[in-house]
Design a protein that fits this description.
This is Transposase. This protein is an all-alpha fold. The chain has one domain. Helices cover 59% and strands 0% of the residues. The protein is built from three helices and no strands. It is globular and about 20 Å long. 15% of the residues are buried.
Length: 41
């Protein structure tokens, strides 16, 4: 999840959700735990 966000700063949480097959809430949780803000990736 973090790798996808770092490689493509324009990617959305929904796109990450579809690529990795995990829930959007879990994507948001992982991003927040690593100091990312879903509206700033």
């Amino acid at each position: 999840v973090i790798g996808a966000a770092v490689l493509n700063l324009q990617i959305s949480t929904r796109q990450i959700e579809k690529q990795h097959g995990i829930l959007k809430s879990k994507v948001n949780r992982v991003l927040r735990a690593n100091k990312f803000h879903p509206y700033h990736i």
